[in-house]
Amino acid sequence: MTMGSRRHLAALAICLGVGAACERGEPAPLPFAVADSLVSAWVEAELIPGAVLRIEREGDLLFERAYGAAQAYRYGAGQYQDSRGLVRL
Predict the structure, then answer these.
(1) CB 39 within 8 A of CB 63
(2) Is 22 contained in some domain?
């Protein structure tokens, strides 16, 4: 199994365990807090340069957070990319 597929499998495992709803701007409830702290730790340890954690259920956004900045920032445009156009698991 490659490192990339391990990361995708880990992300999928985190997302499958998440069940509680969360609105933007609120602190992450416990299931989201676990995923949030894992991804944050990976970025801080420089295991990955950045990430966007976006959790949806039946089309409703439950949780969204971006980590890191260098890859997300559109230089010259002065804005961050919208995560909706990125990868779906």
Answers:
(1) no
(2) yes
Strand duo 79-80 + 51-57: pairing: unpaired
pLDDT digit string, tens, across residues 7-63: 665 665 555 544 333 444 556 566 788 889 999 999 899 888 888 888 888 989 988
Structural domains of the chain, count: 1
Residue 6 located in a structural domain: no
Q: What's the rounded Cα separation, in Å, for the pair 65 and 9?
A: 19
* Domain that residue 51 falls in: 15-70
Q: What letter would DSSP give residue 78?
A: T
Which among 89, 53, 56 has a CA at the least distance from the CA of 68? Answer: 53
Contact in structure between 83 and 54 (CB atoms under 8 Å): yes
CA–CA dist 38, 33 (Å, integer): 8
- What lies within 8 Å, CB to CB, of 17 at 6+ separation is 31, 34
